[in-house]
Amino acid sequence: MKHKISLTLIALALTGSMALSSCSLVKPSETTEETTAASTTEATMTESASESTTESETEATTTTSETTTSETRVIEPITPPEKGCAIEFPDREVYDYKMDLKFDPKDQTIGGHVVFDFYNDSKDTWNELCLRDYPSLFDSEKVYATGLKKGGGLTVISNIKDSRSGSLSHKRDGSDVSVVWIDLDKPLAPSEHMTLEYDFVTMIPNNPDRFGVYGGIYNVCNFYPILAEYVDGGWSHLPYISEGECFYSEISNYHVTIEAPKAYTFASTGSEVSSDQSGDNLIHKFEAPFVRDFVFSTCEFYEKKTNKLEGVDVNVFYSSDKPAQLEMNGVVDVCFKTAETSLKAFGDAFGKYPYADLDIVLSELAAGGMEYPNLVIITNDVCHDYVRMFRSYDQLEVCLAHEIGHQWFMGIVGSNSAAEPWLDESITSYTELVYYEYVGGKQFENQVMGYTSKDWDMSALDRDKDENSGYYVDSPYSEFATDMDYVSMIYGTGKGFCYQMEEAVGRDEFHGALRAYVHKYAFTNANTKDFLAVLYGVVGRDNDKLNKIINNMLRTKI
Ligand SMILES: [Zn+2]
């Protein structure tokens, strides 16, 4: 999700103190000074928060969390893989998207033909499919704070075909236009395969964010109708979260072509393997194996700098049509240095980054950063020299390390980011500390301040004595009364929670548990029970301090 902790950090940096109280429990309808400050910044930077038409707390038809399942877990002892181990692509069949697309900057559209091969990976027969179509939430009539009309609209989906039965129709959910239902003429039995074909055309809104165009940079993310997750007997389709994420999908292989005017340079998930001339256009071809989404960012004025770091092609993209250009050499250097340190630190702790490419896009963005498979977007704000008068490159460094941390916790191990946001954002916020543990010295001391058990001991909380002792770290997004509460709990307290688990068991042991978790659930989706089963399997169940921390901070028990 959007990297809100950077905003908290920005607010704290401005006040010259770290967040002692960001490790305190946030109670419903209560806020701390720090979260108020962060939220003020956030509100200033995200005036388009109303972009979603479905931000009400509408209940989806599926459960808000899988943590409520009552399965019993047997804790098997686990020996973690070696530090710095490889993460191998799985030797099994995965879903497969073939997309032949055309990007039209004049009309601000992206669309084309999709051939999607998949199978029923559940124990239930599927009578219908659920696709998510997030672009349709961007209303064409709303005017952004910049004065631009948003220019979005409903995605046109047509020519839907089932390889087994022929043409199909679709309908949108009455309470959420981003939920698209397709009734199958022929039900899909467990393990049965089918190919779904469809055409779509999506409008790209005027929006300086993860989906939209602004200043000539097109960030085109979550842009095509994608199959939702089928979990516990139903399709998961929790509402879109403008200030967070609801993205939840299966690992797939993507084979994508995008036809675009010649001047446009592309950053994307996966690797660009060729570009062939077609009249005045180029057809760019991308291969993206074992990822849970495909996104791209493009611009006429993109400069692309490439460096081979830790065996990975790291590409930094920025627009040369920017007043900050004179500053870009310094910014690009910081990006490469941070990427290299991240790949080393996270590779040691969680297993080596398994992909060939990592793209870093410097762009307008409402929040500090946003993560996608093999591609991260970092706000241009951190590059502007007038901003740097107040914020050092430290903000760029911590934000970029966080988004790269998501490559493991979102990208490699997926989760339901709306139902259990802590698995996505709290663990990734903790990876900021893993990064600085690797860097060491004063920088680590500064970063960890406020999150340690010396600052506030989570094992000492007594929920029985305090009936209103606040949210649990594993609360779903829908339970938080305000976005401030969500940000403070998931990014602040959740980060401290992970660090205090590390303190309780020791750094090497905790990194080992995370490595075992990544190893076991690589290229699948995990939940809190999965996490706990691996943690206990590695460190055992007799660590009193750890047990108290978990018992106090997580609602989920195994
Ligand atoms: Zn994040």
Description:
The protein is of the alpha+beta class and 558 residues long. Among the domains are: 182 residues, Neutral Protease Domain 2 (Neutral Protease, domain 2); 156 residues, Immunoglobulin-like. It contains 11 helices and 25 strands. The relative contact order is 0.16. Bound molecules: zinc ion (ZN).
Largest sheet: 8 strands, mixed
Number of strands: 25
- List cofactors, ions and other ligands: zinc ion
Q: CATH topology of the domain at 4-43 and 412-553, anyone?
A: Neutral Protease, domain 2
Structural class comes to alpha+beta
Distance between the terminal alpha carbons, to the nearest Å? 27 Å
Name the CATH homologous superfamily of the domain at 4-43 and 412-553. Neutral Protease Domain 2
Q: Number of DSSP helices?
A: 11
Q: What would you say the CATH architecture of the domain at 4-43 and 412-553 is?
A: Orthogonal Bundle
Strand order within the widest beta sheet: 5-4-8-2-1-14-17-16
Question: Strand percentage, roughly?
Answer: 25-35%
* Gyration radius over CA: 22 Å
Question: Could you give a short description of this structure?
Answer:
The chain has 558 residues and is α+β, with helices and mostly antiparallel strands. The protein contains 11 helices and 25 strands.
List keywords for this structure.
single chain; 558 residues; alpha+beta; Neutral Protease, domain 2; Immunoglobulin-like; eight-stranded mixed beta sheet; five-stranded mixed beta sheet; 27% helix; binds zinc ion
